[in-house]
Amino acid sequence: MAESGRRPVGTGRSWRWPAVAGVVAAALAVVLGPLLLRGPQFVERISVVNPSPYDIHVEVTGQDRDGWLSVTTADHGSTGVGREVADQGPVWIFRFLAQGRDCGELRITRRDLAQASWSFEVPAEAIDRIRDAGAPPTP
Fold this sequence. Notes:
four-stranded antiparallel β-sheet
């Protein structure tokens, strides 16, 4: 029997710390879980304006150059649209290919792309490169 003013062994505040720790852990899981499990982000639409007489295939990679992803093929004299393009991070590098030839690259920041409403024109240098290689215009 316990003396007056003394608590029996195993009672008191000792149960509170595990309960508080459990609540804190659950709260952290709810807040941080989605951030840790989040997959890649995507840009809904990227438009590539192609004023050239060549169909141009467009690919993209990030600043780490860890692989190229197809964006679109912009037919001659038209605008190609890539949909659900994986976000490449702060720097995007676009590569242009036409008639089996490398036509060069365009390096642009994500910020500049967003400010341009996710639209850009095939650089004149890329068009010049394919023309200078002797490629005939796409029929």
